[in-house]
Amino acid sequence: MQVVALRSRDPFGAVLEALRGQIRGGQLPPGEPLIVMDLARALGISATPVREGLAYLAGEGLIDGRRGRVRGYATWRLSAADLADLYRLHSSNVLFALAEAGRRGARLGLRDALDGVLDRGSDAGALARAAEGLFDALLLAGGNGVARRAHRAVADRLHLARLREPAVLDHLAEELHGLAALEAGGVLLAQAVRTYHRRRLAEAEPLVAAMVRSGG
Q1: Are 73 and 58 in contact, with CB atoms under 8 Å apart?
Q2: Span 82-100, mean pLDDT?
Q3: CB 44 within 8 A of CB 6
Q4: Residue 211 has pLDDT above 90, yes or no
């Protein structure tokens, strides 16, 4: 467990930010038990905001809130089938937002989402941030706040897989620029979104293996 101690006047918010970031980045890898007292000591904070933060993240679906005889929390350990389901849900959310944006005549802002991200390089972190920003822009253009919140939860759970995509998939920067080039939206962008997700569905097993090999 790699957790950095906190200094904050908002312990609950700081716990959420720290745990979310370290789950997304793999510092708290899949299948890791999340023990309240261990996290509180590592974060240098009392147990109460940690307990509240874990309950909140379990409600979001970012971590596994266990019930029954063995209670507690853990980060999700994704199977290839789980990862494929997340990509399918992500695709559905994005395509719904694209249709809503078209109905509203909204500007998509896809090129804006990539500016200053991929321009600084195409390392794994930049690629993951660029993909997340591009799809966030589509959900924002869709104008449905409920759909956008649901999308954010899925994007959080997919972030670690996105960090590992360069080990499995090629031409990721070109793929994102190709999506952004279809700024006008419509059928061509919808087809490109489907192709983007089909590529990842086909490689769900290698992606999960890459997450395991990296310690996350």
Answers
A1: yes
A2: 97
A3: yes
A4: no
Structure tokens at 25: 């980045």
Q: Is 171 exposed, middle or buried (0-12, 13-18, 19+ CB in 10 A)?
A: exposed
- Range list of H helices, the chain: 11-25, 36-43, 47-60, 80-104, 110-114, 124-142, 145-164, 172-181, 187-202, 204-213
Token output for 199 = 């590529």
The CA distance from 1 to 41, in Å, is 12
Report how far residue 213's alpha carbon sits from residue 161's, in angstroms, rounded to the nearest whole number: 12
Say what the pTM is: 0.85
In the block, tokens 């950095």 appear at: 4
CB 62 within 8 A of CB 34: no
What's the full length of the chain, in residues?
216
Q: Answer whether 113's CB lies under 8 Å from 176's CB.
A: no
Phi, psi dihedrals of residue 106, rounded to the nearest 5°: -80, 145
Lowest mean pLDDT among 30-34, 136-140, 193-197: 30-34
Query: Which residues fall within 8 angstroms of residue 18, CB to CB, at 6 or more apart?
Result: 3, 4, 6, 43
What are the pLDDT digits (tens) for 46-72? Answer: 999 999 999 999 988 889 887 644 568
Extract the tokens encoding 118. Answer: 């991929």
